[in-house]
Design a protein that fits this description.
The protein is α+β, with helices and mostly antiparallel strands and 466 residues long. 41% of the residues lie in helices and 28% in strands. The protein is flat.
């Protein structure tokens, strides 16, 4: 079955789900036989389409709910219609959601058979001493297997557009969605998490950011808003940004509500990541429960990343999510920081300098002179020999290292810790010069406004860390 046909099916199926939910909404004021007939017709149509694309589970489920609706109509027990059709919608939606992911994760028997055949052929040739092109063939097979465990982000974009159109119909807003960077590939295992992140961010952009058409016109904007979704590779990170040209985040309102709730914060924008915190005064189907950005942050941290938010009144909001990708091979600077063996991602290491006599004391703060620029030196106690300068977004600071072991390659593995500072492990095949130590815990903190990642050897974490 072609990709275009499946895309049409999922688009139509989601339209049917949306219409069924509208019937439920109308039914709150009273159920008629006409509502039952319409719901039956929609489910019957979906059953036929499911048969065309071979979704047997959906065929069975639709048939089951057809029988239930028939019984309600015959017995005229209309009071059972709303709970019945609500349950039907949820079950059908779950099947559609799972089926769409099966398409993403699906590896055909043909692909597996071809890989197996190629491998057996290589082994047979090796046994016969035919090794002239073995490396080339092994490299080709590796690339084939690698392609099977990755998918382009455009697969997510297809489903995102369907949900976007449904959001517009529910909110009555007008907007277009732009998607960029769809050709960037990502590990299949991470696609679900990335889609979860994008779904939450796009919902927020439409529900909180984009104004109703009449409000946009009064502000001198076009009645159609713009939501832009973009994926970019930045070093060993995947950067996903979702921006809108809407009303922006009201920082004064955030600060006022945060104080009313007794929350401690230094930046009002930090409040949007607090679980249960919402800027909506009433709960709707789309938002108001205070869950969304906290999920985005948790997902990003579990993937070794972080979240940035930029907003401007009546100009819009941009949310940037960074996640580590094992596909692009992270490189690390390994060394000793205040007695701890650590690894810093090289993406943000500007340079390494000798401390020598370049340290200046200013009260309790230490600065290091780098080519005439005074840069804050963190962790200096008079014993460090090296300063590692980190640079990001035109902000710089230095970490004082007792020793530098060298540069190595490692991969990030997310691990769930109770403490929010710890989000995963770095596994280094080279050991990073740590005398064969291979596993490191990661602490994630903000220093001088820059969020950095420090990986520490497991046995080094003792007092003052947990």
């Amino acid at each position: 079955m072609g990709e275009d046909i499946r895309e049409i099916f999922y688009s139509e199926a989601h339209n049917i789900i949306s219409t069924l939910r509208e019937i439920v909404g109308r039914g709150l004021k009273g159920v008629s036989e006409k509502d039952i007939d319409e719901a039956y017709r929609l489910i019957h149509t979906l059953k036929g389409a499911a048969g065309f694309v071979g979704l047997s589970e959906l065929i069975y489920t639709c048939h089951k709910w057809e029988e239930s609706l028939n019984l309600i109509k015959k017995t005229k027990r209309y009071e059972e219609f709303l709970p019945t059709i609500s349950s039907a919608v949820e079950e059908i939606n779950d099947i559609l959601y799972s089926a769409s992911y099966e398409d993403v994760y699906f590896i055909s028997a043909r692909d597996l058979h071809e890989i197996e055949g190629e491998l057996l052929g290589i082994l047979e040739d090796i046994s016969k001493g035919k090794t002239s092109d073995i490396l080339k063939r092994l490299r080709g097979m590796y690339n084939r297997i690698f392609s099977l465990r990755t998918r382009p982000i455009s697969d997510i974009y297809k489903r995102l557009r369907v949900g976007f159109n449904e959001l517009l119909s529910k909110t009555g807003k007008k907007a277009i969605i732009q998607t960029l960077g769809g050709n960037i590939t990502l590990e299949v295992d991470n696609l679900k998490r990335v889609e979860s992140i994008l779904v939450h961010l796009v919902r927020n952009a439409v529900d909180h950011g984009i104004e109703p058409p009449e409000e946009r016109i009064k502000k001198g904007k076009g009645e159609f808003g713009i939501v832009k979704v973009e994926a970019q590779q930045e070093g060993s990170y995947l950067k996903i940004s979702v921006s809108d040209d809407g009303r922006g985040i009201d920082l004064e309102f955030l600060e006022k509500k945060g104080k009313e709730m007794g929350l401690q914060f230094s930046n009002p924008l930090d409040l949007i990541f607090v679980k249960g915190f919402s800027t909506k005064e009433e709960v709707t189907e789309i938002s108001g429960r205070g869950y969304g950005m906290d999920i985005v942050l948790e997902e990003a941290k579990s993937l070794g990343g972080w979240v940035n938010v930029k907003t401007e009144k009546d100009r819009g909001t941009t949310v940037e999510v960074y996640i580590l990708s094992a596909l692009w091979g992270s490189r690390y600077l390994f060394g000793n920081l205040k007695g701890y063996n650590v690894a810093l991602n090289l993406d943000y290491v500007y340079r390494v300098a000798l401390v020598e006599d370049g340290v200046i004391s200013r009260g309790e703060e230490f600065l290091i002179n780098i080519e005439g620029n005074l840069i804050p030196l963190v962790g200096y106690d008079g014993k460090a020999d090296y300063a590692v300068i980190l640079l990001k977004d035109n902000k710089a600071f230095a970490l004082s290292f007792v020793d530098i072991y060298g540069i190595g390659v490692g991969s990030f593995k997310p691990v769930n810790f109770q403490n929010d500072d710890f989000v995963g492990l770095v596994i280094s095949d080279e050991g990073g010069g740590f005398r064969n130590a291979k596993h490191y815990k990661m602490v994630c903190r903000k220093i001088n406004g820059i969020r950095i990642r420090i990986w520490c050897i497991r046995n080094s974490w003792t007092k003052g860390i947990r």
